[in-house]
């Protein structure tokens, strides 16, 4: 793992996660039943992103206040404590609820392993103060830029009103947004600046959708500052709109762009929630291959409920999420525990037989 990738995460009191101390590797695949807490784990990354944008209070208010963030509310959990580590460096904070339904930083600091020293950011503030230490401690440069570079992708909405199907600003192309709303603008940029990456994306889409020819992305005739997702069939030049794509095909296009975009544009940690939704089994195999390839240079975190997707990974990639005693329990598998089992069964079969855990249970 490189220094910009998350090596360990500790959580106490966050939503369904009462306590968690989890090592992370280059490729991490979370499995578990509905309601086990996979989405809550992913939700922590979103919370950090909002914090770094100065929107902690707004994010908490929109989610329902401190009681929706704390494990079973403030009557049971007094504070949320979090620690994230990037090799030898870490960032930690504790936030507590206030009488007026905000959350205040009880403590916020950086940490360096070799000296066991803390660099205090402050306490008593309502939005993060990490920017006040920019340039004043090397621990900032090893933690904050990496956290800013996390990206949580979620491509579930492919309805007629989905943002990815609408007109969008042509100049919104610095990075692919989490819901792919700027997919057309981003592809327009890649075709112009990174044609090799663009061609890889098109050819990969054609593996899953052989009828697909190319994207037909251009400035909108009524408003040249906007564009929308259009495409054509192989051997034809008639442009189709995004709503002519099946839900599964559109989701796979978004995923292909995430994993095949140029390395310089990819986030350091790529997080995708249930990417298999609506995909054909062959598309799932291609998706797994893309994720494995991307994890050689970037960190990848996936959640899944797909046996087919699980079968494409190794035991050391897995994180099992169970619900026990009203709390989420996250643990990594020990590969040697499964050596004998894997001689006769696939990982997916072991999951279905409840050998791995991560299955509904009373």
> Helical content, roughly?
25-40%
Q: Which class of the largest domain in CATH terms?
A: Alpha Beta
- Within the largest sheet, what's the order of strands? 2-1-4-5-6-7
- Report the mean per-residue pLDDT as an integer: 93
Main sheet attributes: strand count, strand direction, barrel closure:
6 strands, antiparallel
Percentage beta strand: 25-35%
Anisotropy-based shape: globular
Distance from first to last alpha carbon:
38 Å
Radius of gyration: 22 Å
Number of strands: 17
Describe the fold and architecture:
By secondary structure, this protein is an alpha+beta fold. It has 2 domains: 1-149 and 269-280 and 297-305 and 313-332 and 357-362, Rossmann fold (3-Layer(aba) Sandwich); 158-266, no CATH class. It is 27% helix and 26% strand. It is built from 11 helices and 17 strands. A 6-stranded antiparallel beta sheet has the order 2-1-4-5-6-7. It has a 6-stranded mixed beta sheet with strand order 8-14-15-3-16-17, with helices on both faces. Strand 6 (103-112) and strand 7 (117-122) form a beta hairpin. Helix 6 crosses helix 7 (195-208). The chain is globular.
Q: Which key terms come to mind for this protein?
A:
6-stranded mixed β-sheet; 362 residues; 17 strands; single chain; Rossmann fold; 6-stranded antiparallel β-sheet
